[in-house]
Amino acid sequence: MNYDLLVDIASWLFLIYAVVVSSGYLFAAVFSFLEIKEYKRENIPTDDVTLLQSTSLPPVSVLAPAYNEEANVVENVKSLLTVSYPSYEIVVINDGSKDNTLQRLIDTFDLVKDESLRYNSIPTKEIRGVYMSTHKAYKNLTVIDKANGGKADALNAGINNCKHDLICCIDVDCILEDDALLKLVNPFLNNEKTVIASGGIIRVANSCIIEDGRIIEVRLPDKFLARAQILEYFRAFLMGRMAWSRLDGLLLISGAFGMFNKKIAIEVGGYNTKTVGEDMELLVRMRRMMREKNEPYTVGFIPDPLCWTEVPQQWKVLHRQRNRWTRGTMETLWIHRKMLFNPRFKVLGMLSTPYWMFFEWLAPIIEFFGVLFIVLLYVLGRLDWTIFFSFFAVVYFFSVLYSITAIFFEEYSFQQYKKPKYIFRLVGTAFAEPLLYHPFVMWAAIKGNIDLIRGKNSWGTMSRTGLANPQKKQV
Amino acid sequence: MEKFYDYIYYNSGLEWIVNVNILISLLFLLLILLLILFILYLRVYKNLRNIKKAEHVEKLTDFINGYLFDTEFEEASIEEFRAHHVRSKLQKKVTTKEILIYSQNFKGEANASIKKLFFRLELDGLAFKEIASRKWYLRARGMHTVSNMGIKIQESTAVRLLNDKRVEVRLQSLLYFIKLSQKYPLNFLYRLEEPLTIWQQIHIEDALKGYKEEIPDFSKWLNHKQPTVIGFCIKQISAFDQYENVEKVIPFLEHPEEMLKKEAVRCMRKMGNHESVDIVLTNFASENNTIKKEILKLIKEVGSYNQLQTLSYELNGDNEEIKIEYLKAEEYFLK
Amino acid sequence: MKKKILVVEDNPMVVKSLEFKLNKDGYDVVVAVDGRVALDTLKNNDFDLVITDLMLPFVTGSQLIEHIKKETPNTPIIVLSTATQEDIIMDAFTMGVDDFITKPFSPNELSLRVKRSLSKT
């Protein structure tokens, strides 16, 4: 084959793809900007105190699955019990921990077994017992002890055994802002349509100063790996999610912190225990059902910093997390492939699912083949370095530009990183990230694809590596 | 097109793509630098603005505290303060906000004085301008200001804003009606065309808590065209123990709308109404689970074991959820 | 000697007004913006009276009251809170506070109640 023609075709294809991708990002940026601007205006004169004293705020059940968390579970539950909200319960689900998680809880909170009858709307692994505290101060605490079944199964057990109509699913080690529930419940109250879920932005807690379960001071981590993820979270939330929220096309509410309409969650059958992307899959299934039933509905999104979480600081742990996210995305898209390009599902079918397919799933693969192609040309001695570097420069500067835009959004909206030197470090990270961090994440995604195709660790019975720190919350 | 392609293909080899790439890269780099400069500018601008705001608030609170608590305060200094420190838009905005905070925290004489100060500083002009604005968030803010300062605005404007297309403006407008009404705080409901969100209901309830006059008769709006308004009124009938209105709620036990039926059953439970149990028992079999659960709660709290037993046929059915609820109720009676 | 009052409150506007008003009334006023600062301040100082909110960051008003009642049981405490629920008010009194003022409040009334609480000791 003619070498020049080949490179020519590849170049054109590359340009077309680049134009599509960049216009996608451009739209995301514009929509996010509009959404943030509008949101900032909304919080004018509402008075939190009024709300906190109201007896009409819908009560919320906070579901927190715990697996081998004996080190921190007591502290975490204590801090959950101090969140400002007039009426809520905390349901901790001990998902068959092998350590002393349950005993720690029983000892600290004086729990006793509660033998009331319970109806299981969603089938789960065996429930060994439901515990309540004998102390009045902890009357809002319920602990469910069950056989190990994974995070999705644990959450389902929580859904079955909680009292209230709104459920808030969180990771037990998350740090919630004091007004987190109050803010997250807002979309459910202020809407004429049925609200099926609402989600918030996840923030990176690494290196922040934390006391008594509250963020005292926001700090920028010293580790590059954590800083790179901060940029990634900015891009994903402030630019991605915000834009999708404006289009009402959100497909994912992070498993680390989201609120759901219990009735509808039960109606669709709860969390899917057969996928590793249970958080995304649930929301997609709920949306799909509402659309199929032709009921008007919406999904809320709150951009304020409400929930802080530790992100992996080790390459290995990060690799496992991203590998899992990729599989979760693929599984969800596969289960709901009917929605793809289906005009019946409107934004969901024509924009959201295609976006997830091309940007989230295929992008790393295309990129990977691009790299292979370059390597091949090099091996054949056909690589024109001038051309290579010129392409490389375009891609590189584009990704830096995108990150810088995300930093700008953060500055414009919430400005959490207050020290001046933090800005310069973030900008520096934006320049280094495409070279040092991105290839690694891409490789983790490729591995995820390979693992899924080879049937490792996914469909059918899931071998369990635990909810414990590393492997959770898809961003 | 073909000629063009031939031209670039044969005349310049692959250099065209390199040139395009370099051009694009440079463009991106330029944008990056501009954005970084803009971020820095934004930082400085925000900081300066915050410093200015803080300085103004500092001066303002000193001034207001002096005005409120200093016996040697000179009246003339109000005019002076206005002329020097309540000039720019930012100053007016911040001053209004602070005065609102004062009025929310103080009652009695201090509250009356602070309202007087609002007019002496001529801040009502800004509020009126905001109300007439085409931007919804300004309309909401304007309504918030006038209702807290007790300023009457034109009736037609208020009604128009009550049915504004933004829910935030509607909320502030209905609070305006409650706060400024002398005798009938909820009469705005007659003129409300839009549904009431839960959020609005919470705020109405809260405003009613602080209402000193007689609580309105909620049965007046049980035929409102918005079901959310009816639901709200049924809730309030039980919240304020308006036993005289129970009769008027009973028909809703058989209302086709699930939400209203549920509220009606709840209302009966909270008011301890025995007669209602027999009414809901007749239709029990055809209700959905939400209503059935609500009815079982009603029986548990105000009904009898015999009444519960008329439903024992449920135990033979395959509705597991209701079976469990039935057994729970039975357990309660037999304990 | 001037009497010393500790004001624990997180609303900056209320803090400044109270400070101003109580200074005018002839008291020494120390301000703490949250429960933890209040505990620190109490370690090194003696006060003739404490005015506190109930909803405070970090250490709640109730915890603070318990602490004061344990360390210096004779220091009178006035609660200044938005709470209007009967049980909250009752709880406060059972913990031994002297007075409960609900927000919105009248500064003149507060000043009189402060005077009364101080005259009792």
UniProtKB/TrEMBL annotation, chain A:
Belongs to the glycosyltransferase 2 family. It comes from Flavobacterium rakeshii. The keyword Transport does not apply. InterPro entries: Nucleotide-diphossugar_trans. It holds the Pfam family Glyco_tranf_2_3. It comes from the Bacteria. This is Glycosyltransferase. CDD domains: CESA_like. GO terms for molecular function: glycosyltransferase activity. Keywords: Glycosyltransferase, Membrane, Transferase, Transmembrane, Transmembrane helix. SUPFAM superfamilies: Nucleotide-diphospho-sugar transferases (SSF53448). The keyword Mitochondrion does not apply. The chain crosses the membrane at residues 12-34, 358-381, 387-410, 422-446.
Automatic annotation (TrEMBL), chain B:
It comes from the Bacteria. The chain crosses the membrane at residues 20-42. Keywords: Membrane, Transmembrane, Transmembrane helix. InterPro entries: ARM-like, ARM-type_fold. This is HEAT repeat domain-containing protein. The lineage of its organism: Bacteria, Pseudomonadati, Bacteroidota, Flavobacteriia, Flavobacteriales.
TrEMBL record, chain C:
The keyword Phosphoprotein applies. It comes from the Bacteria. The modification 4-aspartylphosphate is found at residue 53. Keywords: Phosphoprotein. The keyword Cell membrane does not apply. InterPro entries: Bact_response_regulator (IPR050595), CheY-like_superfamily (IPR011006), Sig_transdc_resp-reg_receiver (IPR001789). Gene3D superfamilies: 3.40.50.2300. CDD domains: REC_OmpR. Residues 4-118 form the Response regulatory domain. One of its GO terms (biological process) is phosphorelay signal transduction system. This is Response regulator. The lineage of its organism: Bacteria, Pseudomonadati, Bacteroidota, Flavobacteriia, Flavobacteriales.
